[in-house]
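Customer escalation, tier 2.

The customer says the design service returned an amino acid string that "doesn't look like it belongs to this structure." They asked us to rerun it and document both sides in this ticket. The original structure tokens are below, unchanged.
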């Protein structure tokens, strides 16, 4: 690796939290700036290993890539020790960052196609930079549809921003359990596919969320006529090294940190179909 900004291989670099935006009761979005040298640029769908000093390190996708600055944006949901420590960071705190890791979304393969984004829960985080890239260059793609599912209305991420997407895209939102005042859809996100408004033969789809949701969404898309290689999914496994060395994230022949986490459904489906692979 060469260049003034190249990090020592695999070592976390210090980044400073410059902004913390609470999203929900257990999720916050952080803008990080390098405290010294910066990592190489990230692409949508790639992830970093974020190190909460003294606690541990976890994979977290980039949820935003501000243009023209070396900033990284990450959205963290507190589910365990490390993610809770990251969630608790405040502006001015320092975090260790390694990356970029993984292959990103294959947005270049969707050129000229209608783009269909299906997100469940925190799965919207890795898809947000992809949506922003499509919105920034509308002439390169057909119609953009964004289907979002969450457990409850209080769990919806980026609420103000997703509303603004409606000006240029078809945005549909559903929740598993409504709360007082919710007048939107209730039910699993795949139900929104049944509404129409998208054309399978022209569609390139990007899907991220819990594995059962990915499975259901991809199966419905294939059933409707979208070829499996035009469905990309982002898979989660236990990741440690990020560089394809330790084998913790192996899924059949794939080391997901290196060969994924994004995979075409033509590759992912046969592997996910094998129990406990
Ligand atoms: C490629 C990749 C990208 C990711 N991107 C993001 C992201 O952008 N934002 C984000 O918040 N998380 C993301 N994750 C998930 C995140 O890495 C895990 O939540 C984290 O590793 C949990 O570690 P922990 O120490 O906090 O909890 P642990 O102690 O490891 O787990 C605590 C409890 O939470 C459960 N748990 C672990 N992971 C998850 C999960 N993903 N969802 C629900 N329950 C879980 C465990 O089963 C356990 O019961 C990503 C994971 C991968 C592999």
């Amino acid at each position: 690796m060469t260049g003034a900004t190249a990090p020592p291989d695999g070592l976390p670099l210090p980044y400073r939290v410059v902004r913390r935006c609470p999203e929900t009761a257990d999720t916050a979005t952080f803008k990080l700036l390098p405290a010294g040298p910066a990592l190489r640029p990230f692409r949508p769908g790639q992830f970093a290993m974020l190190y909460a000093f003294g606690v541990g390190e976890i994979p977290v996708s980039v949820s935003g890539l501000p243009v023209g600055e070396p900033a990284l944006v990450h959205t963290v949901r507190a589910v365990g020790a490390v993610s809770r420590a990251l969630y608790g960071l405040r502006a001015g705190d320092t975090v260790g960052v390694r990356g970029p890791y993984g292959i990103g979304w294959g947005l270049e393969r969707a050129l000229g196609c209608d783009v269909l984004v299906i997100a469940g829960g925190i799965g919207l985080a890795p898809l947000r930079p992809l949506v922003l890239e499509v919105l920034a260059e509308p002439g390169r793609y057909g119609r953009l549809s964004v289907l979002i599912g969450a457990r409850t209305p209080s769990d919806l991420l980026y609420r103000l921003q997703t509303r603004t997407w409606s000006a240029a895209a078809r945005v549909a939102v559903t929740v598993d359990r409504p709360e007082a005042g919710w007048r939107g859809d209730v039910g699993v996100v795949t139900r929104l596919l049944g509404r129409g408004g998208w054309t399978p033969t022209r569609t390139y789809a990007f899907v991220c969320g819990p594995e059962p949701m990915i499975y259901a969404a991809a199966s419905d898309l294939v059933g409707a006529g979208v070829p499996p290689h035009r469905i990309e999914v982002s898979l989660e496994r236990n990741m440690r090294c990020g560089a394809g060395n330790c084998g913790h994230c192996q899924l059949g022949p794939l080391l997901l940190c290196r060969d994924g986490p994004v995979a075409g459904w033509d590759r992912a489906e046969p592997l996910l179909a094998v129990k406990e692979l």
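Tier 2 assessment: The sequence is consistent with the input. Confidence is low (pLDDT under 50) at residues 1-8. The domain at 13-101 is CATH 2.40.30.10 (Elongation Factor Tu (Ef-tu); domain 3). Sent an explanation to the customer and offered a walkthrough call.
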